[in-house]
Amino acid sequence: MTIDWGIIFKSMPLLGHGVVVTLQVSALASLLGLALGVALGLSSLSHSRPLRWIVAGYVDFIRGTPLLIQIFLVFFALPALGIRFDEFWAGVVALSLNSAAFVAEVVRGGVGSIERGQSEAATAIGMRHSQILVYILLPQAYRQMVPPLTNELISLVKNSSLLSVISVYELTRAGQAIISVHFVPFEIYTLLALYYYVLIKVLSWLSGRLERRLPTW
Amino acid sequence: MVTPVIQVQDLSKSFGDNSVLRSVSMDVATGETVVIIGASGSGKTTFLRCLNRLEEPSAGTVRLDGNPVVNSGSEKQIADQRSQFGFVFQRFNLFPHFSALDNVAIGPEKVRGMSKSDARALAAAELKRVHMSDHAMKRPVQLSGGQQQRVAIARALAMKPRVMLFDEPTSALDPELVQEVLDVMKELANGGMTMVVVTHEMNFAREVADRVIYMENGRIAEEGLPEILFREPKSPGAQRFLRHLTHE
ipTM for the complex? Predict the structure, then answer.
């Protein structure tokens, strides 16, 4: 077989646009997912039993169903309930909701691993449970939460390729558009793999730097 | 009659089948320093932790200034009541992500609702009291064990507690660091602070305690003035315990 180098050079800038959208979706979804995930994670450590159950049920649902189905639910099923997003925001919402469940587990594990003496000392000076979580336990858990959160971010970036099925014009969808016109699956899918690989490498490197800059106690 | 600061009535605590405290009753008067001694496993620490409800007693009552210490009511009420007891841990338990100053200021700020600057001013004053002013901006990891424990004492003092509870405050320290902590505690006692101290430091007990309590198997086996209890312990348990200590 011969490699069509011409199409590769022509595609690289076109895919660049897809990379931008992939990064936009991933950045928005990871920030929203992080915010919601931290809130859920802290809720799962609260003294309120109903709250803990709700979070446990949510995490269980997300873990127990395929992301692709979750994307379809947000894009095709929610409009039936009167909640309508365009493709881009449906994608962001679906990835955020998915990511939040995993972030919640990371927060719960990280905060739960801080030694008991810390919450006892805070309890002894009269701090309330929610204050102890926010001011004492969570800040001490940051550093150890970075590696699992990085894994989650990497999954999220890779999973964003699934949004091609609801026509979000991200990297994968951009590649498929080229393939459908020029029929060059070998060149383009290889190129896509390379693009994702580089994206993920950069993220891992940034995360490693961040982890080293966070203090150990 | 003046109401004792702390009145303990028939306090008991079991962990499953294991009875750790068996119906302990005692009072602590204002300004009094009570030292509790006894072998490990005798219930001293559990007793202390039941006073401020770090441990929930199985039975019995604790009163602070005549008011029962309870575990009902709003979380805020319980927390407020708990903050009337200053508690000093064996392992300091300072917050590693805060400076010494912020370790002391966090309580006044978040629990008492003081402004950050007022809380820090109060914290600076409390650090001065334990001779730690020069180290206010350091993190706990930068401090020696003795210095950490003094910051922990300041953290408890900043809540303006009615009584200070010390749970073996020098047991986790290197020998050369013990005295600086005991000196601070002595200054507090001399300043009129009401204190309950669990310790193995017999010299401290002899010098500072108004009363010594010897605990055994979750009960108060003997109590009295330090000079009397140390010289002529009546119970066989206390005799054995004190003999072991002096032979160390």
Answer: 0.92
